[in-house]
Design goal:
With 116 residues, this protein is an all-alpha fold. It is built from three helices and no strands. The longest helix is centred in the C-terminal third of the chain and has 34 residues, at 69-102. The N and C termini lie far apart (58 Å).
């Protein structure tokens, strides 16, 4: 009984890196999963930027025809909110790529989520 516990601990420590490595390779070696994830992220980022442009232009047009200062303030706040959302959308992929490699996340090695 006294030798079983150290042997079990040694086996756990020795097997864990090999298990993590095989899991990482299994995710990265799938033929389409990394490409699907990258494509989905690029599509949503592109749609987010197009949405920002549409919202920004619509708010600018609305701002031209708004006479009430309270409404103008609301439109400017909406534009600012849309810009913040787009910045978060652009920074999120890069942040995952950097933080994922630091934390050894499985998809960070084979999926590039930076939009540029």
């Amino acid at each position: 009984m006294g030798r079983a516990l150290p042997l079990a601990l040694f086996a756990l420590v020795a097997v864990e890196p090999a298990f993590a490595q095989s899991t990482t390779n299994a995710i990265c070696q799938t033929s389409k999963l990394p490409g699907i994830i990258e494509g989905f992220f690029q599509l949503t980022t592109g749609l987010g930027i197009v949405g920002l442009v549409i919202v920004w232009q619509a708010d600018s047009l609305l701002e031209l025809f708004t006479l009430n200062p309270k409404q103008k303030k609301g439109v400017k706040e909406h534009k600012r909110s849309a810009l913040k959302s787009a910045v978060i959308l652009l920074v999120l992929g890069s942040l995952y790529s950097v933080a994922g490699e630091i934390m050894n996340l499985p998809l960070a090695d084979c999926v590039n989520l930076a939009p540029w």
